[in-house]
Write a structure and sequence with these properties.
ABC_transporter-like_CS; transport; ATP binding; 2 domains; alpha/beta; six-stranded mixed β-sheet; four-stranded antiparallel β-sheet
Length: about 350
């Protein structure tokens, strides 16, 4: 008898467990004191003078995924990403990268982590104004000790990759904000890190330039499959970029899941209010509206992949006037019809993943 094979889960790059970051006097007493740990922000500040920016957070970042951490200002998301490479020292908990304990790394191992394994892309580009685009991109390689010819050759490759070919010899002051951000992205990519860490890199950009940069990240991820941790306060950006999203509030993760899970099955009223204005049909897939096929329904009608959005299904059903089939590997998994699709849009369908038999 054949034993069913469990779905393959990629290995973890970062593994974070029970992480706290507390600012203030005698901060290390807070995580270990159940009474203090249970206080809200105002109560903790009044009792101890401390602020808990990250509270008992645990998650894994899987190899090859875009892991988005999102939340409003003050939710703890930027502090969290800085803890991953100890740009901010955690108060308690554990962090590992590829199984290696980050918190026990000495200064040399930390330098190696930041220079070779996890590159940061910040909101403020941090470009060197007196250097050309090419030399700015090559800067990280220079820090690594790569020879001038080799680093400039590699830098030129990534200048082209981010769409700045022909601008190699310009100075940062001669570039637009979006072009400067592309230089920052190319500089991070040039050192060939295992993980790219983005801390709200596009929030200062104009909307159209911001969208261009989001498309650039999507394209680079599709072409390279590089692991990314992306911090943002913008829900539409999170839904567009993220394979999984950790939604933070007051230093805690209130829900962690795929975009479809967060929009289709909010964990609480806070998340529900957060996603209230999201066009559900553009996030939820046809699995949210799928039902078993009746009689000959599995043999006719437009075919859709299981990861097709409800929006795509609405277009197919409206165009043909027929019930659409959800097909994978030549097998019909179920069908979606007008009533079910409208129910998803109206928010009265079953949660994502539960509509199908």
């Amino acid at each position: 008898m054949n034993t069913p094979t469990a779905p393959h889960t990629p290995p973890s790059v970062f593994a974070v467990r029970d992480l706290w970051k507390v600012f203030g006097p005698k901060a290390d007493r807070v995580p270990g004191d159940a009474g203090l740990a249970a206080l809200d922000a105002a109560g903790l500040r009044a009792r101890t003078g401390c602020t808990a920016a990250v509270r008992d957070v645990s998650f894994d970042v899987r190899k090859g995924e875009v892991f988005v951490v999102m939340g409003l200002s003050g939710s703890g998301k930027s502090t969290l990403v800085r803890c991953l490479t100890r740009l901010i020292e955690p108060t308690s908990g554990t962090i590992s990268i590829d199984g290696e304990d980050v918190l026990s790394m000495d200064a040399g191992r930390l330098r190696e982590l930041r220079r070779h394994r996890a590159a940061m892309v910040f909101q403020h580009f941090g470009l060197l104004p007196h250097r050309s685009v090419l030399d700015n991109v090559a800067y990280g390689l220079e820090i690594q000790g790569v020879g001038r010819a080799a680093r400039r050759e590699r830098a030129a490759e990534f200048v082209t990759k981010v769409g700045l070919e022909g601008m190699e010899h310009r100075r940062p002051g001669q570039l637009s904000g979006g072009q400067q951000q592309r230089v920052g992205l190319a500089r991070a990519l040039a050192v060939d890190p295992e993980v790219l860490l983005f801390d709200e890199p596009f929030s200062a950009l104009d909307p159209l330039i911001r969208r261009d940069m989001q498309e650039e990240v999507v394209r680079l991820h599709r072409e390279e499959g590089r692991t990314m941790v992306f911090i943002t306060h913008d829900l539409s950006e999170a839904l567009r970029l993220g394979d999984r999203i950790a939604l933070m509030r007051d230093g805690r993760i209130v829900q962690l899941g795929t975009p479809e899970e967060i929009v289709g099955s909010p964990a609480d009223d806070y998340v529900r209010d957060f996603v209230r204005d999201v066009p559900r049909e553009q996030v939820l897939t046809v699995r949210a509206a799928m039902r078993p096929a009746r009689s000959t329904e599995s043999e006719a009608g437009p075919a859709l992949a299981p990861d097709a959005t409800v929006h795509e299904a609405i277009e197919a059903v409206a165009r043909t006037g027929e019930t659409a089939r959800v097909v994978q590997d030549g097998r019909c998994l179920g069908v979606v019809d007008q009533a079910a699709l409208l129910g998803v849009v109206a928010g009265v369908a079953a949660p994502a993943g539960k509509a199908a038999a």
